[in-house]
């Protein structure tokens, strides 16, 4: 790989609300005037009201590694993030293009493997990947869809430059926070909404339900859909219960299901009921103890046999992780050109592969400047943010890299855009990213907006809630 020039230094930061002269940008002008005309004490009171609403609704998340059962209230910021209709239209087009290509890639690698035969992507990148699921080879899925729900993480560095940071195709979470953020803002600031034409997001559960219905076998006219959760101690359990309730379907655990004659059934008070679509929030390894982890108490024995027989749909499909692995991420632009014959609308972040000798040498020489990630890591864990790390942290991470270079990729430290955020000292800029949720059934659907995550600590670039980040309501203004 050619040497990559790092992106703009973190001192050159694009403020999404204000120009460099301090004037509010066009689509923020009314918001800045209405919201910031309130005294700081009044804004702080609104923030406390939001916290009380979240607490009352039980909008919490568990943090792995803390005491069993420990939960935190997810921080919420009352200053919305706003997109104009034209810039959102471009993002929507790029997201649909990317997810279409990723689904085509997944179908291909589990069938003809044309992209490997064409030499676009090395065979070992797929076939030797820990997330490649041999049990999925040759399995035909309705609509050839594998990632029914995709959470694509985007970052912005200038007015017109957005980069895809990650493709989350396994069990992406956070959409419940998007919906509750909007409800909370509408309750706290009705006058603010009255003065703006904000595209709605509250229809997302219906969009999800329609997508899941379309993902059932075409021979089923009225499919039974369930949401499958690992249980109440999972970090995203609130979301599992919330989405099941909003869609009007059952929330089940593995113990509530069983397989008979290669069909999946649910225990009910009226007897067994066949299940046709499972929106599963259980990882691949724990889905079926007869095929994957034999010690799993979360899955359903025989589920994979029923799945391979076409009698049940799993959303997302088993084996999607090979496509959102951070080393596979490098090839997504090539996938778009290979399957769609189009140039990518959204760019990848320039990335070094540390399994390559030249890339490894460059990264080791520039660790204090770069972000380094494990190829199968998630949630902000296991990564190094060079500019904010101590010399000891950098030295320790260097040892980890040298022990297994192929387990890491590196990227420039992007100058993530900021949005004004209410913090203890007042209104201050904080770095943000965006996770839109892309639904794929017979058509691709997208709620206008997504989950904006904000790094609440000054100077921090890590937005994950498990690492101290919070969330904002995301507005797309209609013309």
TrEMBL record:
Domain Circularly permuted ATP-grasp type: 80-455
InterPro entries referenced in this protein's UniProt entry, alphabetically: ATP-dep_Glu-Cys_Ligase-2, CP_ATPgrasp_2, UCP005522
SUPFAM superfamilies: Glutathione synthetase ATP-binding domain-like (SSF56059)
Record's signal peptide: none
Lineage summary: Bacteria, Pseudomonadati, Pseudomonadota, Betaproteobacteria, Nitrosomonadales
Protein name: Circularly permuted ATP-grasp type 2 domain-containing protein
